Predict the 3D structure of the following.
Amino acid sequence: MEDLLLVNYWDKRLNEKFPVVYDHLLQGGYFSMPSARMGAEGEISIGYAWVPPYYQYNLKLQLVDFLEVSGSYRVFRGIDDPILTPLGFGDYSDKGANIKLSLFKPEDSRYRIPGLAIGLEDFMGTSSFKAYYLVLTQIFLDYHLEVSLGYGSHRFRGVFGGFNWMPFRNSNYQFLKELSFVGEYDAIPYKDELVEKHPKGRIKRTPFNFGIKYHLWDMFDLSLSYIRGAKVALSISGSYNFGTTKGIVPKFENKLPYQAPVNIQELGELRSEDIMMQDFMFAMNDQGLDVTEAWISYENNQKVLRLKVINLVYREERYLKERIVSILACLTPQDIDQVIVVVNAFLVSVQEYHFDMNFLRKYKNKEIGPFEFDLLTSLKEVTDPNLSQSKRVFFKKKERINFELMPRTQTLFGSTRGKFKYALGLTLGINGFLNEDLFYSIQLGHFFLSDLHQINDIDRLNPSQLINVRSDVIKYYQQKSIALDEAYLEKIWNWGKGWYTRISVGYLEIEYGGVCTEWLYYPVNSEWAIGMDFAILKKRSYQNWGFTNEIRKLDGFNPHWFPFVGSQYFLNIYYDWTCADLEFKLSVGKFLADDFGARIELSRYFPSGLQVGFWYTMTNGHDRINDHTYYDKGVFFSIPLDIFYTKSSRSRWGYGMSAWLRDVGVRASTGSELYNLINQQRQ
């Protein structure tokens, strides 16, 4: 027992982590000063802070274990914007982006030596609150104390520091354990007008700030402080690790892998092909799979069963394979030597498994292990049955019509008539197959709540001087009638050996219709892919479902109309760096506003399925904002919705936001992108 207690003590010490507290920008820190600490990888936080004389709205993402990224929206209380406030914008505001890189975390040495981090605050945009710093943080676990010492430049002038003391961390009273007493030495020279932009923020009676913080329900952080010797500040934030979560609620509706009933009777009088397929269909449907086709053939002196299935539920390929193997082990007739399972991505077959039944039965009987079995049954390219030696024993027509009801949302930030504009409504999706390969998609949408009608589609400060291929999109969202968001036909071919082709024609998005073709080379088990796409597009009219032959171009603020038939074409290179969970995409070619250049996308995906990334575009469009050349850039994320469900689902919700609504570096949506369609089946 003494040995067990000793091991238990050291287990706790080795895995003990001193809680992280966050500053008013949601970075690891105190109030105004940062520390070298940061949250867990995949953690997302959102918060609000009242730091007189500012309101601050913050968002933070722990992109990787050593990199913290955050953004802030700071509102200058009581200060008018000289141009926009009379139009309804409200108080002056400023956006900022912050980044902190940990060179060495305190946890890496189990708190024996200090952690070291470097950081940049407000390094993008106007950079009105720009600061660079280097900071050391030491944890004294036995004293429940964290101490930081750093040096900064620009807004941080010289030496700064802070501490976080949690004297009740081992208390028997649960409500006291998460209470922190926090203090800092604030190195910001508030009295300097070049540093502190708000006149009411230039009062500083002391450089010492102090207060308390409280961590509630392992999710919320509350802070109350006295800053600059003059004002009371407060903040509230919420955090959740969307990157590593297995779901907010347990998936108790998921079925266990198939186990019974077992029927491995040979095909013949006692078990016909129809009975076999009924067994497979029932089991597959119960496991979230849909069988659409089955063939029996004789190849290389083997009797082969070929099944084509659609994965309706599972996001990860390993879980799909687990379910397929459990069914085959229990239901495949003994006289079948090999089973080929073709995985269909609804629109096209993308890969297949070859299961030698001798190996599969040994795996079921635990005569070989999972590692060996995976090597023997890796993914392969799709093959077609030899029609002269094959017999189709089952065929199910694809759905002719399917209805979906989805939310319809649109948000805009920084309009001249307000800091935030929104529209909420519903979209009715109608889709299906006109024949076995020709897919159609129709989406009808309507906004029930919207304040977008207050917005003008011309930037009052920096009107775009390119042809308006995207900056006038607001006119489409201001329709009061039911909108036809899309209506197109699409066909995809898998030519084998990793080659794919797509053709789409119709109303491809809310602004454009036309025809697009795409080809892609993406072999199975490859981290690389390369492709090209080309589209001829016409602009849709603002108020109805027709097209227009003209497009607007501004000369200063004066509109002129020119004949327009749009085109875009790109060479696309993809790389899925699986060992680092990073995905890259490079597109080089012609954008919609007749500008040529390149767009790069970089994204990180997490074990939960969350994907977060950014894009940056460089073209010869020469778009100007505030006398500087603007290149299109933005951020995006995609989150699996089964995080919120009690069962597995392939459904996702994505959102992207550009830094500015402009016409440079614009490409129209043209249907189902081949790489995404295939890659989602191989994750």
Summary: The radius of gyration is 29 Å. The longest strand covers residues 418-433. The chain is about 10% helix and 45% strand.
